[in-house]
Amino acid sequence: MITKTTSIAPFEDIADWESALYAFLAEKERRSGSRRTVEGYARMLQQFFGSIGKPPERITSPEVFTYAYGIGLSGKEPSSATISARIACISSFYRFLIRMGLVATNPCDAVERPRAQPSLPRGLSAEEIKRLLAAITTTPTGLRDRAIVLTLTLTGRRRSEVLNLKAGDITQYGGLFFYNYRGKGNKQGKRELPRPAFSAIERALATWRKSLASMNPGESLWPSSSPTANGHGLTSGTFYGNLQRYFRKAGLPPAGVHALRHSAAKLRREAGESIEDISRYLDHSSLAVTSVYLRGLEGQEDRAWSRVAEAIGV
To answer: What is the chain's pLDDT, residue by residue, as a tens digit (314 residues)?
Structure first.
């Protein structure tokens, strides 16, 4: 979230625009449930309006184009994904402003978005998950991260849904453990917490001299000693960096946290679950989404190659 000292443009009516920006980001956080998404949107909007030096109603389409396709702080040409993300962020803000009656048009409408090739989902095999877990140390930090990896893999939840879990979200009933989560689109849910994940959480908390029974209900399930955590527990960026080190140590190619959600779907499919069950498990909006999700993970069996090979004598 942006701070009260940050401006999006140096104009007298900036207070009104800042208020609109705060309202937009608050709505975005409520809908997405992801602090990381809000921080990314805030950063891009600050960069855009700060570089242009104009209030929103005076921004032109060519200026959006220049920013979206321009070279960033890295000094490299932006990828199609980065360009699309920049345009989507600015366009989303303008759609909000139009709904609020603050502007009449969206300058992003005239900006062509690049065609991006969708990347195939990558799910880890059971053996790769074992290697990943074996690469994680038994220090307090390592045990905490191991609990997160297990929770992500066994529940199939998104990164923000897991990292935002609080002590009060865990409950016990009839010998089973459950967790409450806020999903995409602010969807509320309650699911069983697999016992291996719960045991890993308890073990990790013990090394931080904490326990679910004594923790404040609003306290993060994932403790952190980092000053950047600001009392909110482990940050998404810190966990991502740790995960990349574990991938390297395990001899696995780098992957994002979302790969563990893909892994959860892949492993459940391999265990014999139906697409319908996996769709409900992942909270997908439709079976079509799940089918696309799994298509890149399962591969397609080729039943004809042996006959072709025989015909060409190999």
So the answer is: 444 434 444 334 556 778 888 899 988 887 766 677 888 899 999 889 988 888 888 999 999 999 999 887 777 888 888 898 999 999 999 999 999 888 999 999 999 888 765 555 578 888 999 999 999 999 999 999 999 999 999 988 889 899 999 999 999 888 889 999 887 767 788 888 899 999 999 999 999 999 999 999 999 999 988 655 555 688 888 999 999 999 999 999 988 898 898 888 888 888 887 778 778 777 776 666 666 666 655 444 444 444 444 553 53
145 and 217 inside one domain: yes
Q: Write out the residue range of the structural domain in which residue 47 sits.
A: 14-110
In angstroms, the Cα distances linking 4 to 14, 76, 139, 308 are 12, 31, 38, 68
Contacts of 259 (CB under 8 A, 6+ apart): 121, 122, 123, 124
pTM above 0.85?
no
CATH number, domain of 176, equals 1.10.443.10
E strand intervals along the chain: 170-173, 176-182, 188-192
